[in-house]
Design brief:
The chain is an all-alpha fold. It has one domain. Helix 3 runs antiparallel to helix 4 and helix 11 packs antiparallel against helix 12.
Length: 413
């Protein structure tokens, strides 16, 4: 063991005080937004609109939570110094899974207000959707069971990873034991992919139960990982100039995250275009109606917005190698993509509630707009408070990782 390895301790990389100072503003904004949201819903008796907006906010912040769990497992299976830089961020974010479960409960209890199949009688649902789909999948009992299974699985994987992480930080692990956590992570990635696929069908695709897409789950997985990469870049750029991260941070790590963000922007565009091309060329009424709702009534402007702002603009900028090494510019692109992820989730869900060939978006009133804006803020304020609270309690770097000293030696060598 090198002399440098003997000198490094978790306390040397304790979180900077600024993280603790970020908690209170986040919680304050979240509580104020939550009070406004509940006041609007209760005062105007708009609980259906509340749940529609809550769904978008829930899906967005769930993406950062489970996307962090996915990247954490990918780092364990693949290695790479870029992942060690973000490991503590992802552990803190994935720790919000219990909070996200609480955020899911309003959707489960109020499913009849937003999911058409849940509001139908059994006979109506069978007549419209078919007996096999209703009896085996689209019914309230299975909705509850699957949702609980998803969260139990994610929480189980998170618990295993955190138990290992804390043992590693305490110096109770050896490099030979690392294989076990790699195996668990490999299994976890498979479970994550399956769970997100079915969860995205349950919570988003079933808003229009007559429609289906074979790449829907992949779109959600890619979107979640992309959101997490953007959030990670934001944190790295903010914290890299400060102690203790500045001791080992290199622009190469930021460049790596920039390349990953670029790759997932392209992958999101590829999957989105593939879905549209296959469905549109098939020209089946049961499939193209999902797009027809989004090509008229005011919703048609969101498609070009997503194409140019979510893909073309970031794609053109991220082609530059030097830009991916400039923190201030890269953080602006990351925040733009993060905002467009929210717009994409809005575009995927909201048109199902505001249908109409001529006036679909026109029925989207000021109260609706206010709730769609306030919901993500309310959930996000509390999510960030919990995230910062968890992040500040541990070292920012996994100093007892078998390859961490190599990172330090590469920085100072």
């Amino acid at each position: 063991m090198s002399e440098l390895a003997l000198r490094v301790t978790p306390q040397d990389y304790a979180a900077p005080p600024i993280i603790g100072r970020w908690r209170t503003p986040a919680l304050t904004v979240g509580i104020i937004a939550g009070v406004v949201l509940v006041g609007l819903a209760a005062g105007l008796h708009k609980w259906d609109v509340f749940l529609r907006a809550w769904l978008v906010g829930f899906l967005f912040w769930l993406g950062l939570t489970t996307g962090s769990l996915c990247l954490l497992m990918l780092q364990y299976t693949s290695g790479g110094n870029w992942g060690r830089v973000g490991r503590r961020f992802w552990e803190a974010a994935a720790g919000n899974l219990p909070f996200m479960f609480l955020c899911w409960l309003p959707l489960a209890f109020g499913m009849k207000l937003i999911y058409p199949w849940a509001a139908m009688s059994h006979g109506e649902a069978v007549a419209k959707l078919g007996a096999s789909k209703v009896d085996l999948y689209l019914n309230p009992a299975w909705f509850w069971i699957r949702g609980i299974v998803y969260f139990l699985g994610w929480l189980g994987l998170y618990s295993i990873l955190m138990r290992w992480s804390k043992r590693e930080e305490a110096g109770e692990t050896t490099p030979s034991q690392f294989v076990a956590i790699q195996n668990w992570s490999g299994f976890g990635i498979v479970f994550y992919a399956a769970a997100i696929t079915f969860a995205s069908i349950d919570w988003a695709m079933s808003l229009y139960p007559e429609w289906w897409s074979t790449v829907w789950g992949m779109l959600f997985m890619v979107g979640q990982v992309l959101s997490t990469l953007c959030f990670t870049i934001f944190l790295l750029v903010k914290l890299a100039p400060m102690e203790p991260l500045s001791r080992m941070f290199k622009l190469d790590y930021l460049h790596d995250f920039g390349k990953l963000m670029f790759a997932f922007v392209v992958l999101w565009a590829y999957l989105s275009f593939s879905q549209w091309l296959i469905i549109w060329s098939g020209n089946m009424l049961s499939e193209i109606k999902w797009y027809l709702m989004r090509l008229r009534g005011g919703w048609q402007f969101f498609g070009p917005l997503l194409i140019f702002v979510h893909f073309v603009f970031p794609f053109a900028l991220l082609l530059s190698r030097s830009l991916k090494r400039q923190g201030r510019r890269l953080i602006l692109i990351a925040l733009l993509i993060l905002f467009m992820r929210l717009v994409d989730l809005f575009w995927q869900t909201a048109p199902n509630f505001y249908k109409g060939t001529e006036s679909g978006f026109a029925t989207f009133g000021l109260v609706d707009a206010a709730m769609y804006i306030v919901c993500p803020i309310a959930i996000g304020g509390i999510w960030l408070f919990l995230f910062y609270s968890r992040l500040e309690k541990r070292s920012l770097m996994p100093v007892n990782d078998p390859h961490f000293v190599e990172m330090l030696e590469a920085k100072h060598g």
